Amino acid sequence: MTILVTGGAGFIGSNFVIDWLAHHDEAVVNLDLLTYAGNVDNLASLEGDARHHFVRGDIGDSALVARLLAEHGVRAVLNFAAESHVDRSIEGPGAFIQTNIVGTFNLLEAVRGYWSGLDDEARAAFRFLHVSTDEVYGSLSSDAPAFDEQHRYEPNSPYSASKAASDHLVRAYHHTYGLPVLTTNCSNNYGPYHFPEKLIPLVIHNALAGKPLPIYGDGQQIRDWLYVTDHCSAIRRVLAAGKLGETYNVGGCNEKANIDVVRTLCAILDELRPRADGASYATQMSFVKDRPGHDRRYAIDAGKLERELGWRPAETFETGIRKTVAWYLDNQQWVHNITSGHYREWVERQYAQ
Ligand code: NAD
Ligand code: TYD
């Protein structure tokens, strides 16, 4: 049997593919467009592994998806592919509409065509798992209970609105066509292979480079952080045992204000890689203009996933963040390849027509 993972060269997708192959012998077809966020270096540890088959392509290319599904006899599709950075969605929302909404629609159409042609047994066993975000629920006031699956959708950024639209399409394909879908809505992830323009890797990178650590607004915005391999284990669990048509919130019960995350990173770096002048990295913290429409607080109630499927995260924020800093210190070349432009140049050469 084979699964099709989309976006498997991105941050969470690549962690998922590595995690999957460490737990299963089932092969993975990895379909990724290699946008600025996709990086085959993330998959270097799988080189020579016959169970991993990488294809550069677009989830919006229905003919390609249909061919891959049929050729590999795929029994489940896991959709990680997306434009994912809120700041970029404010700068230029078009790509978000294209990939997250139109792309997901085209993917669903290809999957529906394939699935409806399967025999009864294979049709019943088939799964389409859609990876989504807690940001579709909007922003919480400081004393409001965490988001559960009943919380109404109130997306506030072009990114979260496009993810919300994709969630609705996935839901509709279940209700209308009976496609066996599952949706996960997860809080902010962190860990290895996180693209260095997101808060945690950006702060580590800038700290080591002696640059300012930009904190938007007053730094009191709260995110609920989950170590990426805990997200991967939640997805494996939902795929294996989730109820069709249901959504599952995934989170770590780790609500932290941004400024505290930055302070924690500085303290760990002070310990593991002290600055030559003996000063703390915290002296590089710099308050900058706030993000337009910045959501104040996200928090996830993952109680349903724990009660119904027995999932719990393995990492606390303290253990996960320490592992993350250590990973970045050990993998400076990975960061350098991205930030220096080497990686983009390689993609252009490798995939030149
Ligand atoms: P990412 O930006 O690091 O990776 C996205 C990947 O998708 C990249 O490899 C990119 O090349 C690929 N891609 C983009 N457009 C494509 C297309 N049209 N066809 C095929 N591939 C395409 O994102 P991420 O942080 O790994 O997020 C993965 C998924 O998880 C997204 O759907 C995101 O909404 C969701 N999510 C992310 C977080 C988080 O904290 N990062 C939290 C919850 C949910
Ligand atoms: P980010 O990593 O972009 O994730 P998201 O917007 O999806 O939550 O940002 C996490 C939080 O950190 C968010 O509240 C914005 C804030 N932030 C900064 O304060 N400075 C920065 O340079 C970045 C990139 C983010």
Automatic annotation (TrEMBL):
PANTHER family: DTDP-D-GLUCOSE 4,6-DEHYDRATASE-RELATED. GO terms for molecular function: dTDP-glucose 4,6-dehydratase activity. Gene3D superfamilies: NAD(P)-binding Rossmann-like Domain, UDP-galactose 4-epimerase, domain 1. Its EC number is 4.2.1.46. InterPro entries: dTDP_Gluc_deHydtase, NAD(P)-bd_dom, NAD(P)-bd_dom_sf. Signal peptide: none annotated. One of its GO terms (biological process) is nucleotide-sugar metabolic process. Belongs to the NAD(P)-dependent epimerase/dehydratase family. dTDP-glucose dehydratase subfamily. Keywords: Lyase, NAD. It comes from the Bacteria. This is dTDP-glucose 4,6-dehydratase. Its cofactor is NAD(+). The keyword Protease does not apply. Residues 4-324 form the NAD(P)-binding domain. It is an enzyme of class 4 (lyase). Pfam families: GDP_Man_Dehyd. Transmembrane segments: none annotated. It comes from Massilia yuzhufengensis. It catalyses: dTDP-alpha-D-glucose = dTDP-4-dehydro-6-deoxy-alpha-D-glucose + H2O.
